[in-house]
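Handoff note, outgoing to incoming analyst
You'll be picking up this chain. Sequence as last confirmed:
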Amino acid sequence: MTKYIARSLEDLASISDKLIMEAGEHRLFAFYGEMGAGKTTLINSILEVLGVKGGGSSPTFSIVNEYEGRSGESIYHFDFYRIDNLEDVYDIGYEDYFFSANYCFIEWPERVEELLPLDTVKVQIRVEGEHREILLDVAN
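Most recent structure output, in case you need it:
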């Protein structure tokens, strides 16, 4: 497990770049953290690193947003905070996204934990006073 410290928003670009590099070939990321910890902000920073113009927004009501990366590839951002049950996740065809080999970034993965593949990259964000502690766990 690798730990990064974000003392300001300016730190997120370099941390985002390191998260992507350390994850290697892994493309499915689960972001854990309390409400307001900065999950969406970190994901937006990662989207910028991957070449998404204008960053993104949380798909709180739509469940998933699709973006185009630097090379024209699709990148998916999920927010499962408002799902009522796993049927909702099956209905959107989660398998097509999770197993697409495209980047997928998931907020509130606790709600779909049983559907996540074993090689999901786990990112834990902890609020520590004025900074954020970002823990990266890359499954092998």
